[in-house]
From TrEMBL:
Keywords: Membrane, Transmembrane, Transmembrane helix
Protein origin, superkingdom: Bacteria
Transmembrane segments: 12-35, 55-73, 85-107, 139-160
Protein name: Uncharacterized protein
Organism encoding this protein: Hominimerdicola aceti
Origin organism lineage: Bacteria, Bacillati, Bacillota, Clostridia, Eubacteriales
């Protein structure tokens, strides 16, 4: 990838991650409880289960996971089709996404005494609350594990999409191998 395209790709994926976090919080806090009120009163046990904050947080996590899987599956297929795939670039993107998501969590305790930033942290890390409160993990561990699970699954889907596309179109693999063989011949 060219440097400008790569920078645009990084910034767009970080932006999509932030928007998906906000949407997953909206889905878990507003949409699911609103949809549960439509069910009849005979399903009160189901209603109470679905309005539990840990379940809502897990639903937000699942929403974010579904969008991530679809997005990065499409990226893997597109990068294979246009032959601009680089595992180094994609790993850098995932690591930067991890850092952008995790670094603000480190500073949460500095804002907790004054009450500033409570809404920010509750919304930004809403998809990870189920790990913190439901499973009982440390806050920082739950944040890094939550985003790590999302990004690891997205990375796997990216690689699967790439492999499937290359398997269906072996000409791409041959041209990539000949290109890499040409690079090694020039170094000798």
């Amino acid at each position: 990838m060219e440097a400008i395209k790569f920078l645009k790709y990084i910034l767009s994926r970080i932006g999509i991650m932030i928007v998906l976090t906000l949407f997953s919080a909206f889905a878990g806090i507003v949409l699911i409880p609103a949809l549960v009120t439509v069910f009849p009163s005979s399903t009160s046990a189901f209603k109470s289960f679905m309005t539990n904050s840990n379940v809502d947080s897990f639903i937000g996590f699942a929403v974010m996971l579904i969008f991530f899987l679809r997005l990065f599956y499409d990226d893997g297929k597109r990068h294979a089709a246009y032959e601009n795939w680089s595992w180094v670039n994609i790993t850098i993107v995932y690591l930067l996404m991890l850092l952008v998501y995790f670094i603000p969590a480190i500073f949460r305790d500095s804002f907790s005494q004054e009450g500033k930033g409570d809404i920010f942290y509750k919304v930004l890390y809403y998809p990870c609350i189920w790990l913190n409160e439901g499973v009982g993990m440390n806050y920082l561990v739950s944040v890094i594990l939550g985003i790590g699970l999302l990004l690891a699954a997205a990375y796997c889907f990216y690689l699967i999409a790439y492999k499937v596309y290359v398997h269906k179109h072996p000409v791409i693999l041959k041209s990539m191998k000949s290109f890499s063989a040409g690079k090694t011949d020039n170094k000798v």
